[in-house]
Design brief:
There is one protein chain. The chain is mainly α and about 110 residues long. The protein has one domain (about 1-105). About 80% of the residues lie in helices and about 0% in strands. The protein is built from five helices and no strands. The radius of gyration is 16 Å and the shape is elongated. The relative contact order is 0.17. Pfam families: DUF2834 (PF11196).
């Protein structure tokens, strides 16, 4: 099952990045222009805020569990979440978490 989450992390990296890179190539390599595009209408803004709240919740969970378990490798999910997206960070974190549980015999 953990390899399914690894595959989803890869998919969650490649698929969104295809659209981001395509947008940058068609428009400009200005990140603030992309942020403005994310708020082009209320539907897009709602989706941005939905993903922002999910990213913050995931970050709090990752930090809490990393501190509790002293398994600092879990923190890699935070930059994956904010540099790539929740579509990468969440399945990556679950993959890492399942790998550590399996190694610990759990």
């Amino acid at each position: 099952m953990r390899w399914l989450f690894a595959a989803m992390a890869v998919w969650g990296t490649i698929h969104p990045m295809y659209y981001f890179v395509s947008w940058f190539q068609a428009n400009t390599w200005d990140i603030m222009a992309m942020v403005d595009a994310w708020h082009a209408n209320d539907a897009a803004s709602g989706l941005v805020w939905d993903l922002t709240v999910a990213a913050v919740a995931l970050t709090v969970w990752v930090i809490y569990e990393a501190v509790q378990t002293r398994q600092w490798v879990r923190l890699v999910a935070i930059p994956a979440t904010f540099c790539i997206g929740v579509s990468c960070g969440l399945p990556l974190y679950i993959f890492i978490r399942m790998s550590k549980a399996r190694a610990a015999g759990g």
